Amino acid sequence: xxxxxxxxRGDEKTWKDAMRGVHSELPxxxxxxxxxxxxxxxxAPYNLDDLGAYQAAALSVRDNLIVNWNSTQLHYTRKAPxxxxxxxxxFLMGRTLSNALLNLGLQPTYSTSxxxxxxxxxxxxxxxxxxxxxxxxxxxLAACYLxxxxxxELPLWGYGLRYKYGIFQQLxxxxxxxxxxxxxxxxxxxxxxxxxxxxxxxxxxFYGSADRWGDGSGRAVWxxxxxxxxxxxxxxxxxYGTKNTNNLRLWESKPKRGFDLQSFNAGDYERAVETSNSxxxxxxxxxxxxxxxxxxxxxxxxxxxxxxxxxxxxxxxFKNLEKPISEFxxxxxxxxxxxxxxxxIVELMRILVDxxxxxxxxxWTIVTNTFFFTNHTVLPxxxxxxxxxxMTHLLPRHMQLIFDINMLFLQSVEKQFPGxxxxxxxxxxxxxxxxxSIRMANLAVIGSKxxxxxxxxxxxxxxxxxxxxxxxxxxxxxxxxxxxxxTPRRWLDQCNPALSELITTTLNxxxxxxxxxxxxxxxxxxxxxxxKFQQRWAAVKRQNKExxxxxxxxxxxxxxxxxxxxxxxxxxxxxxxxxxxxxxGVIHRYTTLKSMTPAERKKVVKKAVFFAGKAAPGxxxxxxxxxxxxxxxxxxNEDPDTKDYLTLFFLPxxxxxxxxxxxxxxxISQHISTAGTEASGTSNMKFCLxxxxxxxxxxxxxxxxxxxxxxxxxxxxxxxxxxxxxxRYQHTYHPIPVEEKSPALAAVLNTVSSGIFGAxxxxxxLLNTVRQGDFYILTDDFDSYIKALEMVDEAYADRxxxxxxxxxxxxxxxxxxxxxxxxxxxxxxWNIESTKLVxx
Length: 840
Ligand code: B1N
What we know:
- It is a single chain.
- The protein has about 850 residues and is α/β, with parallel strands linked by helices.
- The protein has three domains: about 110 residues, no CATH class; about 375 residues, 3-Layer(aba) Sandwich (Rossmann fold); about 325 residues, 3-Layer(aba) Sandwich (Rossmann fold), CATH 3.40.50.
- The chain is built from 37 helices and 24 strands.
- Strand 8 and strand 9 form a beta hairpin.
- The two termini are about 55 Å apart.
- The relative contact order is 0.10.
- Ligand B1N binds next to helix 8.
């Protein structure tokens, strides 16, 4: 009938009652969703699609968040506890709706209401675009830490930039298999998760001139130049199982005036508009490079714009407390997520000395009691160094302050180590050269109260290789470790509901309990020999593998055998992460299979290998690696001799949401960086939490994972950190040909050269990184890598034993909850306390 055409989805009476206001018995949530369809979206329910349903549901959930957010912020203001601020250029948040529903405990309610309105929650959830304001691990870590601080009711805010374009979208060229980049205009559909605070603005200055008072006070006046407006957008961060809702404040840049009045009067319309363009450019795009710096002026502008706005905001909040400025560090702790926000140290000095008229030494004491610095990598190409001429031009006053800080610092070094010129040169904030440059890491160290690395090994290398002089100067206690963590809410409960359910019933504990105290997972150990439980555990993995298979079939049009072992490596493409080692290993497996008789092949463990990850747009070798993977996949997946035993997939456009699909489906995942190069890794923790086993090098957090789960549950291979330097030396001065070191690897390289994955020698530059120099020691690790994969095959053949390993691995992941990491920061670094929202 005609009514059915008009009301194509859901229960007609529910819709009509909700719209007419005849809805006394309808659930509040249903009323709220329908109300948002009608008013906020200005849509009729006719032909409302999944996207519309997502928007209405999101706005309805947001109403709840806003209430909690307001109460929390009011509560913090009244209580006036010490606060912590997490300064990060990247927050890789992913989707919000499912997380908000989980944290508010509203999942079942919304599921039912949406279903009555004709929508399946799971279809609605996937309508949301990822908020992808980050490159990888560093940005995702920041997001996990926000979740944990809200959950633990800690008064912490994040500060970042509201990029118009997040990390680029990755496409794969159908023709040659290479990576293409497209912009990510994630704000195109309105973003329900942010609250524009158009009234919270600060003026941020660039360029101009700095005039010293010349009275010995160290003070100066900075004037002129360009002024840009910073506008606040607040993103609500709900805690799990609490009403506490924290804030992530993102800054957008705007021209201070729409046009420059003087130019306008002079009739130079073009120039007037140009001013506004350059202001908006500051927060236009996330830089898509990780681990490499290019020294671009716009990047320095981003860093200063963001730190200056954030500090002005903190200062305004602090002033409302009406406490003496000398107590600033008693009320504020600022965590620097890598060196990117280091200018905050200089900016706070500027505010204190120039504006608050605090004497220099007292100002420096406040600064060095406020800041904390986390280092995330020891790779030299990631160490930020800004040219002195650029800094002088863009931030003249800050350059003066850096010189003054440096002079006083070097004087104190000279006092402790008289006459040690080389030491002074090494520790100086200024690196000599043409031009001179500013060592941001040294500045971050001397301006902070404590410095930490992100896993035990890494924190050791930070002390031994990056800052040995500073350890000698300040003593050991300034340098410590906080091993990274991940939130079990997103990385287990949300991405793997079936496993979460099984854990809850097996532990016989409400999920609210173990999701907040992940050590409770150890309770699974006593069920490890229970055959029923093993079966259910295996069934969950199987179900997740099928879910991934369906996705792959939909996106790539290729069938995946869910019986195969799923072997996954997903992370940014980088030579140090050695995706090249993995793909060369796959080719080795392929040629081995090819050389077998059909009868022999039948005995081999079936395997499906998955890769995903983006390469920085200018990173030639990383992009060539993607191209090789894609083209090897095209050959292997078509080969009738082997395709039943080995398939290979490169899943384009890796994201948080894709990780949520891939991670629960893995049997084995690869974390195979050259020893001593991966600071921590965090996906290794996610895979293990979801019952996947690790193939890995003795690097980063792999080491601590093995300590927890036992070495017999991890497949380690490769040379250790102390071997790497001598091997590199050997490669340079006494090279041994690949043919001698690893005949197996030499054969694989020749297979690629032979042109079966693409002729014309296109891969030679990639192969040559291995054949010559081999900085990441693939030739030295290849044979032991292949051995490790053989052991994986052997172990996988014994299904029961494998399932037990899987259970034991999950059960021992307690340490890697970001709740533990955040507790450590709160207690040992920031000295902040939980401030629970109490209803009045
Ligand atoms: O930070 C993660 C670690 O788990 C990873 O091991 C580490 O590689 C990653 C410059 C970085 N280190 N450095 C960066 C990102 C962006 C950029 O512009 C460097 N990312 C990491 C969390 O600790």
